[in-house]
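Notes, p. 3: input format for complexes.
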Amino acid sequence: MKARYSVIVPMFNEEQVISVTYERLKKVMDECGDTYELVFVNDGSRDRSAQMIREISDQDECVKLIDFSRNFGHQVAITAGMDYAEGQAVVVIDADLQDPPEVILQMIEKWKEGYDVVYAKRLKRRGETMFKKVTAKIFYRLLSSMTSVDIPTDTGDFRLIDRKVCDVLRGLKEKNRYIRGLVSWVGFKQTMVEYEREERFAGETKYPLKKMIRFALDGITSFSHKPLKIATYVGFFLSFSSFLYLFFVLFQRIFFTSWTVPGWASIVGVNLLFNGIVLMLLGVIGEYIGRIYDESKDRPLYIVSETIGYRNEEEVDRRKDYKDVR
Ligand code: UDP
Ligand code: MG
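Output follows (326 residues plus uridine-5'-diphosphate):
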């Protein structure tokens, strides 16, 4: 019995790369000898990406399209792909060919050996700005120092997961999703393959600084309470130092009567500094409260406007009959 794979490709304005991505994925997946589907999730692209996949899907029944009603974000697009995927193993890959599709074959090898999660660790990142590389390095290390979940450094969402891991992930309904963290959190037998990240094949990055910051904050707030504790530590430290300073002032006042009050500059300076710290800590608390608010509204994660390539209901349900063929 042949195994069946689902390859999930989130895409946002990727018309310049998507047909080449399709060709390369198809070539690689044909090599593996099993059956597969390519699930393209159109995350509200404003260009021809969706139209192009629609046309390809008319020719090739392995190709499916989940079309969102608007842009919901990369992590949500991956989540939708997992919801619709039928395969016994699910691979997530970027649309821009930065993750070489050929690595999927190595992942499949590992899966057949019995691993449930095979993530891809980047040894090198080509064609990315110094700024992105440095901030990414710092971020992954900062995150791992803050959380007890063992999230591997320098890995993206390029990975293969087994059906049972996919089903567990689908049950985690949190709204601000940091998928690579969730995959680590669920456990199971995990391993890695190493690869060199290529340059983007064409087009621009779809992760401007604003999205990157949001993503980083999602990662930290989903997996650590440490930022909240900073308030406590800073508070203790400041109270203690103020206490010492008060002693010093009293001491001077009593024993050196000629001592006079210095100018206003220091008072204003200290005031501004402390107000700044208080506001910053309020902001940290606000980040968490905002996320609690998102959870409590309980809106759906995404809205699908159309699905293409799901030719009959049976097809979607077929995964129920799968047996473990590894
Ligand atoms: N992407 C998406 N929605 C977004 C932003 C990005 O689906 O809002 C997709 C994008 O099309 C690509 C993947 O997520 O397939 C990674 O994005 P990108 O390559 O631009 O990020 P980078 O590699 O520069 O970090
Ligand atoms: Mg990219």
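The two ends are 10 Å apart (CA to CA).
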